[in-house]
Amino acid sequence: MEEVIQVEGLQKTFRTPFVQRKVVAVREATFSVRRGEVFGFLGPNGAGKTTTLKVLVGLIRPSAGRVRVLGGDPGALSVMARVGYLPEQPYFYDYLTPRELLDVFGRIFGLSAGERRRRIDALLERVGLQHARDRRLRKFSKGMLQRVGIAQALLNDPELVLLDEPMSGLDPVGRKEVADLIVSLKDQGKTIFFSSHILADIERLCDRVLILHRGEVRHFGDLDALLSRGDRREVVVSGPWPREMEALPGAGEPQRIGPDVHRLLVDREQTGEVLKRLLGAGLEVLQVSDRKVSLEDLFMATAGEGPVGAREERE
Amino acid sequence: MIEGIGGPFRRVNAIARNTFLEAARNRAFLGLGIAAMGLVVASLALANLAISDQKARVLTDFGLFAIALLLVVIAVTMGVILVFQEVDRKTFYVVLTKPIRRYEVLAGKLLGLYGVLAIALVGMAAAWLVALRIQGVPLHRDMAPALVLVWMQAAVLTSVALFFSAFATPLMSGVFTVGFYLIGSSLTVLQDHLSARKGALVTEPTARALARAAVFLLPDLGHFHVGKELVLGIPVGWDYVAAAGGYALGWVLLFFSLAVLVFERRDFT
């Protein structure tokens, strides 16, 4: 399948003012995005998501590595003509109306006056802003600005849509509308790359995901495969936990959930061996059940690996 | 991608229109109208204070000086926020991620501000001419070239402000640009002192070196000041305006290129 984004060994370092400390925002990131998929980009605050997105649209230049977007260099005119980008918490010219703002961008895209008018009306309708089309952006709420941001990202009917926190600032109705929009864009054959903190949306909408932590790629791949890879069994046993019990293969620490009742999460392949040892130690097995790993489990496990934030190195 | 020659012009034009609209809808533009009215009132008041045979001289000199000063104020105040404001408010994120080159954005911003300066000049010149007519001062045909030269000076200063605003805060950019204006307006005096046989610039080698460097490195804004010629009735002429235009264009291109060099390397974090 054709890859519309190819990132190999991407590294971005910044220098802090005055003390010139080197801050690594993205470290050796390698991933790709396939044409026509919805790609989720996850990570705690400060993980390097926005930096990576900005590299993809040419706002930031990589310190090292190779980045190709739609077969060209990020930021190149021929590339950006086919890309739509929504920055995180977008801000626009206060004194313009949404129609005037989209008209400026339409002119940059080289659209004719008639085409600009047609697309702008259709997009404002699509994002639910027709009623406010002649109101100055200064008077817009955060959610309305987000909708304007989505409209400007779609003005050129892009092949690739990059959305940085598209659900941010939206109420539940707005979130649902954006989710529906992403689904309809996918149905039109477009590729959507979006970052979000709202894991339920990512889990519901994305074909593949990438979890970034401290600038490093921790998980990357097909969402179903990632989640099933972590599938485990939950074993509940009754009886006093033997002090001399050795570590069980493929099992986590037992959690006490009641008087002499313990719960263990066990790797699927090791379940038989663990059960044999538990029974041998005189414990009564109350329950064995499948436990499917959610994206939240995966995310929290990744985010809990250490303090959130970019690594810093002193040269 | 193969693009026609119209592409860059179309994109620059889109940014220039937007910059012009931004300025036109800014409340500061209203202040400009008030300043123009103030110019008329001040001219009339000053004319009443002047000796009767000096009335025309005072009105002409004061009017041109006031217009030039107001235009410099606009050029500096708007020039220093031209890029900074877009970066600070992050409006550049959505502009620079469109199919447009960074230097085209800067060119559009600069041209948009030149349009604002032209409109401001026309407004203030109209107010000045009204004041002259009220006082019965005959209009001089060299007033038009003098006004164009005033605009050119503001254009050079805008490009200087644009260069500084590509990397410095508005306050720092403002200080640097005003410094440019003050030194650039004094270069003729500096040259006179350098060619004198006595004085500080002859006896102090460091001061002399600094003065020579300033004369060599900075634009001589004295070329755009023709108030004295206007008052004394010395013809200015369009050939002089054309030569001054070439001089201004050279400096504008130099500072614009320097701004582009800084801007092209910049990360928008």
Tell me the layout of helices and strands:
The complex is a heterodimer of chains A (315) and B (269).
Chain A: E1 3-15, E2 22-34, E3 38-42, H1 49-56, E4 64-69, H2 77-80, E5 83-86, H3 98-108, H4 113-126, H5 142-154, E6 160-164, H6 172-187, E7 191-195, H7 199-205, E8 208-213, E9 216-222, H8 223-229, E10 232-238, E11 255-258, E12 261-267, H9 271-280, E13 284-291, H10 295-303, E14 311-313
Parallel strand pairs in A: 3-7, 3-8, 5-6, 6-7
Antiparallel strand pairs in A: 1-2, 1-4, 2-14, 8-9, 10-12, 10-13, 11-12
Helix pairs in contact in A: 3-4, 4-5
Chain B: H1 6-24, H2 27-49, H3 55-81, H4 84-88, H5 92-95, H6 102-134, H7 143-165, H8 170-185, H9 187-195, H10 200-203, H11 205-217, H12 227-232, H13 238-264
Helix pairs in contact in B: 1-6, 2-3, 2-6, 3-6, 3-7, 3-8, 6-7, 6-13, 7-8, 7-13, 9-11
Tell me what the structure shows.
The complex is a heterodimer of chains A (315) and B (269). Helix content of chain A is 31%, strand content 30%. Chain A has 315 residues and is of the alpha/beta class. Chain A starts with a strand and ends with a strand. Chain A contains ten helices and 14 strands. The model of chain A is unreliable at 306-315 (pLDDT under 50). Chain A has a six-stranded mixed sheet with strand order 5-6-7-3-8-9, with helices on both faces. In chain A, helix 3 crosses helix 4 and helix 4 packs across helix 5. Chain B is mainly α and 269 residues long. Chain B has one domain (2-185, 225-264). In chain B, helix 6 packs antiparallel against helix 7 (143-165). The two termini of chain B are 28 Å apart. The relative contact order of chain B is 0.13. The mean pLDDT of chain B is 87. Classes of the chains: A alpha/beta (315), B mainly alpha (269). The A-B interface holds A 14, 51, 54, 57-61, 75, 77-78, 80-81, 83, 85, 87, 89-93, 95-96, 100, 104-105, 107-110, 149, 152 and B 1, 3, 7, 10-11, 13-15, 17-18, 21-22, 25-26, 89-91, 93-101, 267-269.
